[in-house]
Every structure is written in structure tokens, then in C-alpha cells.
Write a structure and sequence with these properties.
By secondary structure, this protein is of the alpha/beta class. Helix content is about 35%, strand content about 20%. The chain has 16 helices and 18 strands. The structure holds iron/sulfur cluster.
């Protein structure tokens, strides 16, 4: 429990289960909930947190419980639908330990994981039927009407905290202005748990605008944190025994000299040695020789670069963030800087509207020819993006559909028209070492 210094409202913050055909722990942490905790604490609110996705090792598997698929179309999949994270019994035990509260905040990530929120609401309502539920995060931002009706939220918050702070303050009768200076989440106590990794963001959003990506809609304009603030956070995590940090930025290398380079050099000066991961793809165009050398020296592992496609027309049409030449240079710079080839992976999108399997095969062979591993990422349409609007005009998607249908594995099987046997062969080709 995080106590305020004032006669307080009590709120429970919940990171819900994942509901999917597959899920893997790529160093996930509910950073949005921590930001909310800072804001609420500064307004005198007592807080408890239940994170259904913690503690689990990363990278690694979550515990999984197979559950009935939420809709018939899921039967198209040759995999089981499951709840990922702690057991329901464990949730109940944690809920008992929190004691009574006045309000629940639930965050959300992928829209098609909303059954995970429904399970949380069921659990809470069975013990505290009258407690109001506030839903925020990505799904709430992209599908507010659905979130309200399918999850029974009393209040749906769209966008980052700064855009809905007023709404939350009004709903809960909280002061607009902080009663005390905001303290970073890690000084509030009660949040750092027993995992040996953490996720950190050095900025919100992304200055690019790719046709399939909702970064701008979800996070607002690109906004950076000061290097000093990030260093303080990482130093704290280090003092608690954390040795692996995943950067969850959308644009980690943008303004490299003034941001990440300063952070890495600042940590080195303090003698802090960590392993860093970049599960979100890095901008290959920004991986210069000097950048690659600093990343290699600073302990970066599991580097992921975004290419998405080798088709130059599609590269340009989807936003022009990277070309194949940019990728070649980035891979060369990283290898020359001493980064082991198995630590470098390249994301390729699969199932973009109009994309044929030949294009995907070409991408796989191209990435492999550079001596690094391709990772296939199945396209999922996101409301508000240009790709969504195009699919909507063609009658493929609409805001009336069930978000489950936008699940990356499912959407692609239902709508890409691919020969799935051939696709499976391509997946094997991508994963093979030759
Ligand atoms: S560069 Fe990446 S994060 Fe930025 S808009 Fe494009 S896909 Fe999204």
C-alpha cells in the first residue's frame, strides 16, 4: 500500500491478464500505471497495485491457463486461447490483502486482450459490487465505446494521463493541483517487486508517423524525459538488484547525443553495468558507427531493428522511416562494433494490406543475407491509423467489429488470403540458422 500524507481516498491500480493465443514476457512492466500512481499520490490518494503479469522471468513465459475462446472465429486458429499471468486464485488472495478501496483503475494494452479486463472486473465486482471502475491505456483510447459497454467501465480515459487528468480529478473529486510535489514512482514504495528486470522509457511517443502505427494517437506528441531523471531511475533500480533493463521507447535513438548517449555515459561514470534490451524496434537509419559502438560498449543485447518490408514502394508509402540501405549500414555498424550476430534481430511485417507472401520471403532472405535473424510480426489493424482507414473504406474493418478480430494472429488468418502452409514454411525459414 502506498500511503498519502492526507486523509485519503483509496484506489486500486490493476495491470490485467493477457488474453491471447500466445504471449511472451518481453520485460513487460505497466509503466502507465506507475505514472498514474505518481499523479494520484501527489493528490493525496492511498494506493495498492495488483499486477497480473508479475512476477515472471523475462525473457520468458507467463503462466498460462487455457480458457474457452471468446468467439467462434477463434476456432480458425490451431492454438488454444488462454489467460496469461497469475492464477485467478492468486488474484483473489492479492485482492483480499489490499483491503477495501474507493475506486479501481485498470490499464490496457492490446485492444484484443480486453477479455483480460473483463476477468478483472468480474473478480472485483464479485467482492466490491459498487466500486467504480476507471479504464485507461491503449484499448481504452482506441475503442472507448467498446471499453465502456464490454468492460463495464464507469469512466473511460483516452490518451496519455495529461489529456485525461482533468476528467479523473472531476470524477473522483480530487484537487486539480498537486497537494505535494510529485515523487517518482520508485520512491512511493510498494511498487518494485521480486522480478530481476525492469522497463524504462526515456520519452513518450514518436516523431515519425507510420501508416500502421498508433504511437501518436496513444502517446500524444513526442515528449522526452531529461537524461538526469532517467539516470536517477536506473540508479535506483540498480540499487534494488535489477541488472536487466528493457527500453520501451518508440524512438529511443532520436536525438541520440542529447538523450540516450548522455544516459549511457552517465551510468558508465557511476560504474553501473547493466544489460539493456530493445524489444521495440530501433530506427536503423539512426544506428551510426558511433551509436553502434556506444550501444555495444554499454551492454545492449537483444537488439531489434525495424525494417518491416524490403519493398521500396511500401517502405515509402508506410512512412519512409527506413530503407534497406539504412538497415545494411546499421547491421554492418553493429557487427563491426562487436555486437554478436545472434543478438541482432530484424522485424518484418506480415499481412500488411496488399502484401504478398513473395514480398515476405524476399524480406526473410534479404535479412538472412546480412547475417542476422528476421523476426516476423503479424499486422494488426489499429483504429485511427491510415491502414485502418483504408481497410475501413474497403469494408474489411469497422468500429462495430469485435476487437478480438484484430488479434494479429487471427486477423491475418482471416483476412490475408495467404496459403497458410506456405506461410508456415516461411516462418520456419525465418527461424532457421542457415
Ligand atoms: S517509427 Fe515506429 S513508433 Fe514511430 S510511428 Fe513508425 S512504427 Fe510507430
Amino acid at each position: 500500500m502506498i500511503h498519502s500524507r492526507y486523509p485519503a481516498l483509496k484506489c486500486l491500480l490493476v495491470n490485467p491478464w493477457i488474453a491471447d493465443f500466445a504471449a511472451y514476457n518481453f520485460w513487460v512492466r505497466p509503466l502507465g500505471l506507475y505514472r498514474l500512481a505518481e499523479w494520484l499520490n501527489a493528490r493525496g490518494v492511498d494506493l495498492s497495485i495488483i499486477d497480473c503479469l508479475s512476477p515472471f522471468r523475462a525473457p520468458g513465459k507467463f503462466r498460462r491457463q487455457v480458457v474457452p475462446p471468446p468467439m467462434k472465429s477463434c476456432l480458425e486458429m490451431d492454438r488454444n486461447f488462454a489467460r496469461y499471468g497469475i492464477t485467478r486464485q492468486e488474484f483473489r488472495e492479492r485482492l483480499k490483502r489490499t483491503g477495501a478501496f474507493d475506486c479501481v483503475f485498470i490499464t490496457s494494452v492490446m485492444s484484443y486482450w480486453y477479455p483480460g479486463i473483463q476477468w478483472v472486473v468480474e473478480e472485483i465486482k464479485s467482492t466490491f459490487p459498487a466500486v467504480p471502475i476507471i479504464l485507461g491505456g491503449i484499448y481504452a483510447t482506441l475503442w472507448p465505446e467498446h471499453a465502456k459497454s464490454a468492460c463495464g467501465a464507469d469512466l473511460v480515459c483516452q490518451g496519455p494521463l495529461k489529456t485525461c487528468a482533468e476528467k479523473i480529478a472531476t470524477f473522483l473529486g480530487l484537487p486539480r493541483q498537486a497537494l505535494q510535489p510529485e515523487r517518482p514512482w520508485y520512491l512511493l514504495g510498494g511498487i518494485v517487486d521480486t522480478v530481476d528486470y525492469w522497463a524504462v522509457r526515456t520519452a513518450q511517443g514518436c516523431p515519425f508517423s507510420c501508416s500502421y502505427c498508433a504511437s501518436r494517437i496513444v502517446s500524444g506528441p513526442f515528449a522526452t524525459r531529461s537524461p538526469g531523471e532517467v539516470i536517477r531511475e536506473i540508479v535506483f533500480l540498480y540499487s534494488r538488484g535489477i541488472r536487466q533493463i528493457a527500453f520501451y521507447d518508440d524512438a529511443l535513438l532520436v536525438d541520440f547525443e542529447n538523450r540516450l548517449a548522455r544516459i549511457l555515459k552517465g551510468l558508465a561514470q557511476k560504474g553501473i553495468s547493466l544489460t539493456f534490451h530493445t524489444p521495440n524496434g530501433l530506427h536503423a537509419r539512426l544506428v551510426s558507427k558511433e551509436t553502434a559502438q556506444l550501444l555495444a560498449r554499454s551492454g545492449f543485447k537483444s537488439i531489434r531493428l525495424s525494417l518491416e518490408t524490403t519493398n521500396p514502394e511500401r517502405q515509402a508509402a508506410t512512412g519512409g522511416k527506413v530503407s534497406s540501405k539504412d538497415l545494411e549500414k546499421a547491421v554492418k555498424n553493429l557487427l563491426e562494433a562487436g555486437m554478436p550476430a545472434p543478438d541482432i534481430g530484424v522485424y518484418l511485417l506480415v499481412g500488411l494490406p496488399g502484401q504478398e507472401l513473395e514480398e515476405i520471403e524476399e524480406g526473410i532472405n534479404y535479412v538472412k543475407s546480412l547475417g542476422v535473424r528476421p523476426y516476423l510480426a503479424e499486422f494488426s489493424p489499429i483504429p485511427g491509423t491510415s491502414e485502418w482507414k483504408r481497410l475501413e473504406r474497403n469494408g474489411v474493418v469497422s468500429m462495430d467489429m469485435d476487437p478480438i478480430l484484430t488479434n494479429n494472429s487471427l486477423f491475418f488468418r482471416l483476412f490475408s488470403g495467404y496459403d497458410m502452409n506456405r506461410f508456415k514454411r516461411l516462418k520456419k525459414l525465418a527461424a532457421s540458422l542457415d
